[in-house]
Task: structure prediction
Amino acid sequence: MKVSLLTKPLHAADGDVLIVGAYAEDKRLPEPLAHLDRTLGGQMAEVLKEEQFQGKTGQLSHFYTAGRVPAKRVMVVGLGARGQVTAETVRRAAAAGVRRARDLGARVVSIDVLGDPLPLGQRARAVVGGAILGTYTFERYRKEKTDKVVEELRLVDPDARRAEALNEAIRIGQRFAEATSFARDLINAPANEVNPTYLAKTAAEIAREGKLKLRVYERAECEKMGMGAYLGVALGSDSPPKFIHLTYHPPGRARRRVAIIGKGITFDSGGLDLKPADGMLRMKNDMSGAAAVLAVMRTLPALKPPLEVHAIIAATENMVSGKAQRPGDIVRAMNGVTIEIGNTDAEGRLTLADALCYAVTRVKPDEMIDVATLTGACVVALGSLCAGLLTNDQPLADRVKAAADLVGERVWQLPMIDEYKEGLKSDVADINNVGPRGGGAINAGIFMKEFVGDIPWVHLDIAGPAFSDKDLPLCPKGGTGFGVRTLLAYLTDLK
Result:
């Protein structure tokens, strides 16, 4: 989708559809909607009255303009109460409006910078992000593809003095949304295509295009580094593991060094502790953390944050075979900690253990954030729309949470209860990879804390929001790309 700024008043904007917003409590159309309505000969007020349009969030109304203004149709989206509008309200309104315009066959859509109580840049980012995310489709494997596509989106603002600020907001909103779409494409593709080798090739393309540094370690190199936890998971698969390390260096001096780590299980059968069929069906999405991290690294060169960013992915499948890891096996992580395998389906934390150890010893970052579809327990605790956050450093957690709030990705902090470590004790090794049933998401966080040392660290368990079984306001059914916008907002210090 091409996105641009149109410095004209609303009544002069052209396109197949012009989208404007209305608030619930407004008894009369405020300016500039009133001016637009006068140009339309009162048509908009008449249609809204006839349809009993109340401006509720998500409400839509549209009509032909009969040539009274350059735009062929006008669409009004409800924004709810003016005092309660948020950036997420704007994102969802833009998504609903542009999606309806697309379904009506519109190719060129003009849209007001909705949500006037909010700061201008935040509004513009939300409009662009909502429009792109809300019209995302995944049709790579379909013979018949839809011919209804919005090719151009124009943000309408009459004040040319604000053009520079708006163009920058458009650029950021578009980059964030396109990065999320890139992650969605990776997640939605099937596991017979997206295997560890595919992720490594994708990382190589990203490195080449963005002039990033890349190192991909093969199995033998990981063995030399002592990555027994990661390689234990990889034993059962015929697809070779790939340990991926991408590095972004800023144009100038880096303010700090950050490691972002994505869980890269390209398919999770559960191993010998086999998942039931319905639990395995969507396990192509178990690399959603890796997809998010790759999408972020693909976008950083264009955003140029003043940070040194290291992306780390321990990519493998978790499969069943005569070579597969067994319950009761003992593996040794890169830092020397021995782990008893209490359950082969708790594999993500094993791969992350060595990824975290690698970051600590080889990267030596100032802070680390991992993103992982880690536990069903987190879905039980927080549902399918919210990620869990665990940390050993509250200031870092607060900054990550603030970034998530800004972009509309729901994150809730869970407690790191040290006494729960008792449940991870093993009779034969330093630690077990599973604990009691209760507090499973917390137990996983406590397990991974053993491998981060003193470095400030945040763990995001995205098992719930990474994949949706139904259409959402900003995403159709499938991979959501959750975490991409939070990481980008955090790394770019977005306000």
Summary: The chain has a mean pLDDT of 97. Residues 2-150 form a domain with the Leucine Aminopeptidase, subunit E; domain 1 fold (CATH 3.40.220.10).
